[in-house]
Structures are given as C-alpha cells and as structure tokens.
Automatic annotation (TrEMBL):
It comes from Amycolatopsis pretoriensis. This is Uncharacterized protein. It comes from the Bacteria.
C-alpha cells in the first residue's frame, strides 16, 4: 500500500513539474505577427497618398 501511495505521489509531483516548466518554455517564445495586407497597412496607404499628391502637384 505504501508503494502505491509513493508511486501516485511521484506521478503527481512529476506532473506538476512538467506543467510548470512546459508553461515557462512556451512563454519565452516570441509571438508571431500576422502579415499585413497592403490595404490594411497605414504606412503603405500614407505613402500612396503622398505619391498621388506629388503627381497632382507636378501636373497642375
């Protein structure tokens, strides 16, 4: 009976250690950024507006 309790206790401790260290390993990885479509990118839209403004200034 004592051996069974020791085995269950060892499994519980091993499970707790595994969960605690596995969680830390996932936190340290850098998050991935999704690619931004050109029509959603504010810098790209600003650049297009500037190009259009320059063309209008040159034409008229």
């Amino acid at each position: 009976m004592l051996a069974l309790l020791a085995a269950v206790g060892a499994l519980v401790v091993a499970l707790l250690l595994w969960r605690s260290f596995a969680g830390q390993r996932m936190v340290t990885s850098p998050p991935r950024r999704a690619p931004i479509a050109p029509d959603d990118d504010p810098d790209f839209l600003r650049q297009l507006a500037e190009q259009q403004r320059k063309r209008r200034d040159e034409e008229g």
